[in-house]
Amino acid sequence: MKIDHSQPLEYSTEQNRLNILGFWIFLGAEIMLFATLFTSYFVYEDRIGSGPSGADIFEITPVLIETIILLTSSFTIGLAVHAMRINRTKAMTVFLGITLLLGAAFLATEIYEFNHYYHVGATLQTSGFTGILLTTLGTHGAHVTLGLFWGTMILMQIKKRGLTPQIANKSFIFSLYWHFLDVVWIFIFSFIYLKGMM
Amino acid sequence: MEFFERFAIYHPSPLIYASMVAIGLVSIAIVVGITYFKKWGYLWNEWLTTVDHKKIGIMYIISALLMLFRGGADAIMMRLQTAVPDNSFLDAQHYNEVFTTHGVVMIMFMAMPFIIGLMNFIVPLQIGARDVAFPRLNAISFWLFFFGAMLFNVSFVIGGSPDAGWTNYYPLASNEFSPSVGVNYYNWALQISGIGTLMTGINFIATILKMRAPGMKLMKMPMFTWASLLTNVIIVFAFPVLTIALLMGTFDRQFGTNFFTSMNGGMDMMWANLFWIWGHPEVYILILPAFGIYSEIISTFSERNLYGYKSMVWSMVLISLFSFTVWLHHFFTMGQNAFTNSIFSITTIAIAIPTGIKIFNWLLTMWKGKIRFTVPMLYSIAFIPLFTIGGATGVMLGIASADYQYHNTMFLVAHFHNVIIPGVVFAVLAGFTYWWPKMFGFMLNEKIGKWAFWFLTIGFCLAFFPMYVTGLDGQARRMYTYSEATGFGPLNMLSFFGAGLMAIAFALIVYNVYYSFRHSPRNVGDDPWNARSLEWATHNPVPEYNFAVTPEVKSSQAFWDQKKHGHKLFDKEYEEIHMPNKSGVPFIMGVLFSIFGFSFIFAIWIGVILSAIGIFACMIHRTFEQVHGFHISVKEIKETEEKFGGADK
Amino acid sequence: MKELFPMKQVNGFIFSLLLTVIALSVYFLDMSFSVAMTILLVTAFIQAGVQLILFMHAGESEDKSSIYTTTFYAISIALFTVFGSLLAMIWGYMF
Ligand code: HEM
Ligand SMILES: [Cu+2]
């Protein structure tokens, strides 16, 4: 395997560069995946049957907490990549760890939020609206959950093997994934919550 | 006992029981056969664990051919049922199941994999690469497709087939109107194979964008590679829509949500909307590679460069974007106002323009060319007028106001078979014949091939042109019978006759494979067709490493340049070649996915959980695994090259 | 310590918080639907741009044209899907 030392570690082999481009293309597909969910959300937004509407059930506090947590975690994963590029492995793992903790906090808040919906009678089955709401949030949440496992695996590998070109590559790709989830959340925040509450 | 009842066939008949027995016997025969000839090791080592794009391509094509026969049997049954008025060979429910599985199998498990198989085999060779960007992922894609297809076929003998059409419209597909597990099969089989297809899309875009031989600029890629690139672009953006739509359908049927119901805010039309947002791009996923295949073949057998390379590329780029803007033409009659219909009517007709441009490119390529009427060329020549008719009727259907007359009649059925059979099926058969020596090192017999071609073409015309007439006369699609008074009888009989000719054609193609395997000479050399593009610059059949040294290219006709203009393709010394390791994990993941799907279909949650854990375990294993591949030494390369009668250098 | 917090990232973070606050105004202030939607659209897309270019380094490698093309395709198709569906299922739907 040829290693090109003029490039950052995560770009240093041909396979690494392929992986990064491949992941960007995957993100293109993810954009369409969420676009389909948003499309459906907008179509069902007012189709509430006899169930509650968005304005009835949304609460600003947990939503704000989630938003700030996710924005911060997107910042810290950016710092992790930066630390990786200046060869500060220790700092990198710390930032990555913080990111994962923030991710877990996000999930906890989201579980609280879902629980709240359940108690006010907005379940998956209640109406077209509640169904698509929970499916959209749930798909994002599932992505975050997957990200938590993935990030943990990467942490374990760094502990075990140090920052090899492969692991640097995985970490960088993980950061792309995490930023992307943040972007999706911004759209959820703006066009599901804020639009629903205003 | 109660547990097992759910697996019973929903709507049994002697025919199904007979096939059950047949399937059982064939499976036993296969297992016994492999054991008897001691081929398990060979099968596992050479095929099930392979990550070689060439072998994966061949496996795709074999599966596609098998599915062609499954779908073909369905087709013959339908034509038999409707051959005479008031027939009772199939009842309504069976007829529903048969047209549903026919459509799904033909589109998802025959046409798509056939095309992806050719792409797998040819694209890396056409760009001078050793393999695709992610060989392991490629194997996973294949096994997901394969087990998705198997899962779908199992519905025939366990639990009952889907019966709501390949378009699976709600409310027909809801629990209320489709109470068997059939539609669950539909959801999960398509979901699993769809994920595989999505990964193929990502893989091939990365491959084509980053692994081309030195000198091969984008505008110097062979046309089939261009077509594949854009097809994969469409795949990447279209398949996520299907993923979500199927998920919502699954939720509705299995978790009681209200997406496609008519209560509590549900909207059944939304399924049609999502389905066609994926579905229309899907038809371009099928046709673009076919255009690529025809371009290669027509240019080879006219001995001329492809006319208007740039316009060809740009028209395909336009199609890749615009194919996402026309979907509503599939439901003009389902409640949109005239303004909305007009917009989509205009986009629909507009997209026919880039398609039309290509017809002229092919015609002008043949103009003044030295045409050789080989089997692949015959298919390509027949394609041009037949596809033009299909395109023209497409434009007729695209006129929203007129569509009120044609929609859901046999006219529509004639249209899409008219574009798909001469468009896609002829193309894959032509490509199959054209690249056969590349795969196996000998030629398919031309004479039998020509017989098959004529049976297929004439059979096609007889089978489908009458439907234009009966459709305009008002014969509805998907009706299992009609009365004598309608007068549809004779033309339907003609259709049945045409279908029979097509069946003979497919039998001849299989016979041709057998015959050529036994009798064709093995010394065809590396360039049996006097071809032009890079894939022909290596040996037949292709060695494991594709090219002994990486070629240097200066046009889209690299091999022609070498032959006629003294261009040096291989101007380097041998070097060690790095190859990826094989792996059994993709196959195991395929098995786990099919268990997952099967359990989900029958709501056996323990199976769902266990197989999901298994799938994650495979992924975790993958991220911790350290594989470095292996090297083929210079000595080995030399030996292989000598075996093929000396290197090209 | 300081080299671990480059200005680019810190500013980006502050900017994204700021955008969030602006977006929040649609909740706390009284405004018409179209003004509010405009604010949301603008802030959301700028926010996405910040993430894409600043944090995800979309333009740093040799493949930047492929990456930008992919994103362009994805976004245009996504927008067409959203608005086309709204047209088909709500604005232009007669039942
Ligand atoms: C010249 C370009 C084309 C135009 C203008 C066109 C137009 C249309 C229209 C308007 C319909 C819907 C009619 C109705 O439901 O009443 C339709 C159906 C269909 N077309 Fe085309 N088409 C074109 C090319 C193709 C191609 C190239 C393919 C496939 C390779 C294709 C495959 C289909 C299929 C599968 C259906 C119907 C499926 C169903 O309802 O089950 N079309 N086409
Ligand atoms: Cu269409």
Describe this structure in words.
- The complex is a heterotrimer of chains A (198), B (649) and C (95).
- Chain A is mainly α.
- Chain A has a single domain (11-47, 58-197), classed as Cytochrome c oxidase, subunit III, four-helix bundle (Four Helix Bundle (Hemerythrin (Met), subunit A), Up-down Bundle).
- Chain A has helices spanning 14-44, 54-57, 60-85, 89-119, 128-161, 165-197.
- In chain A, helix 3 runs antiparallel to helix 4.
- Chain A is elongated.
- Chain B has 649 residues and is mainly alpha-helical.
- Chain B has a two-stranded antiparallel ribbon with strand order 1-2.
- The model of chain B has no long low-confidence stretch (mean pLDDT 94).
- Chain C folds into two domains: 1-56; 61-95.
- By secondary structure, chain C is mainly alpha-helical.
- Chain C starts with 6 loop residues before the first helix and ends with a helix.
- Classes of the chains: A mainly alpha (198), B mainly alpha (649), C mainly alpha (95).
- Chains in contact: A-B, A-C, B-C.
- Chains A and C meet through helix 1, helix 3 and helix 6 of A and helix 1, helix 2 and helix 3 of C.
- Bound molecules: protoporphyrin IX containing FE (HEM) and copper (II) ion (CU).
- Copper (II) ion binds at residues 280, 283, 326, 329-330 of chain B.
